[in-house]
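User: Let's play a game. I give you a shape written as tokens, and you guess the letters that built it. Ready? Here's round one.
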């Protein structure tokens, strides 16, 4: 195994955090005290967290927006939580939430509610990397539904013809709000094939296996840093509705029942235990520690004073200078 034991256990903590941070959102929403509109990635955590571990300090990430755990762990859990619920102490002064988050000092974002736009902005960042001869690469995420947007094809072509330092990754959960992707929004069953049409090499991997995600993203990044843009696809399943409050009546509940048999967290737990990388006691201790971190972050953020009407309309906080 190329990762040390402590690294493997750290990744377990992150996965456990990701799942339980988002479940805490559902718990708090039920109390009526948590403001906001949420699109959770429960069941899909291994993709964003495997990638987070693969990127280096010179790399930039424009993630697929369904990624609270990545934002929180990459930017600061308390600072992100404050941002997510609109408090002035948040990463963008509480003006962005997670939908429009941009934290250039952490080389992450921008996030954008207009599907397909992030990818164009990410290609612009990568063009800047190439023109300024920067060392790293840019990782650009997209859902398999947004992948059908026309602008995404244009910018994949740009990435290819200019040999930009980019890895595109697709979170293939086979659904866009209520529309299935395979055979409905696209005749392709492997979205990565479309990238190949533009000259981007790549393959499809198990998005519920954090080690597979990390290793394949590390390899993809090495290529991108050498000026070989490429694409990877990670398959997974969205367990909850498109947003919190969506009862997902459009989908056969068996899809989620089946997906739960391939839970990325239980799968990783099993891997750690069977290979002797962790004991049950170690895992329980990590879980306890993460539960405390999550509770503290929500307590901190929810007890901050509400933002002022003056801040909500403050142009200095809304527009970039
Ligand atoms: C240009 C544009 N069209 C439509 C929407 C509405 N919309 C928001 S999310 C979404 C589906 C995204 O699906 P996918 O990219 O597969 O990501 P997932 O939700 O599965 O994570 C749509 C259609 C939008 N935000 N922007």
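Assistant: Ready! My guess for every position:
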């Amino acid at each position: 195994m190329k990762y040390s034991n402590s690294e493997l256990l750290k990744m377990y903590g992150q996965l456990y955090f990701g799942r339980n941070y988002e479940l805490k959102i559902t718990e708090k929403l039920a109390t009526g005290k948590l403001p906001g509109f949420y699109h959770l990635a429960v069941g899909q955590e291994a993709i964003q967290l495997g990638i987070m571990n693969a990127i280096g300090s010179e790399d930039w990430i424009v993630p697929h927006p369904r990624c609270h755990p990545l934002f929180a762990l990459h930017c600061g859990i308390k600072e992100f939580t404050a941002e997510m619920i609109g408090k002035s102490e948040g990463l963008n002064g509480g003006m962005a939430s997670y939908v429009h988050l941009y934290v250039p000092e952490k080389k992450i974002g921008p996030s954008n509610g207009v599907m397909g736009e992030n990818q164009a902005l990410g290609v612009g960042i990568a063009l800047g990397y190439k023109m300024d001869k920067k060392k790293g690469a840019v990782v650009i995420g997209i859902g398999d539904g947004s992948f059908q947007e026309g602008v995404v094809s244009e910018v994949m072509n740009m990435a290819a013809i200019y040999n930009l330092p980019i890895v595109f990754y697709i979170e293939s959960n086979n659904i866009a709000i209520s529309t299935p992707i395979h055979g409905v929004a696209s005749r392709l069953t492997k979205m990565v094939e479309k990238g190949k049409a533009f000259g981007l090499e790549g393959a499809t991997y198990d998005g519920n296996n954090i080690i597979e995600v990390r290793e394949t993203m590390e390899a993809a990044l090495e290529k991108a840093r050498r000026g070989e843009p490429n694409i990877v696809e990670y398959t997974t399943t969205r367990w909850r509705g498109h947003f919190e409050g969506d009862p997902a009546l459009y989908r056969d509940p068996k899809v989620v029942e089946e997906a739960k048999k391939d839970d990325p967290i239980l799968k990783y737990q099993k891997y750690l235990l069977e290979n002797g990388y962790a004991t049950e006691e170690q895992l329980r201790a990590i879980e306890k520690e993460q539960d405390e971190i999550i509770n503290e972050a929500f307590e901190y953020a929810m007890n901050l004073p509400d933002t002022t009407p003056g801040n909500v309309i403050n142009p200095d906080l809304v527009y970039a200078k």
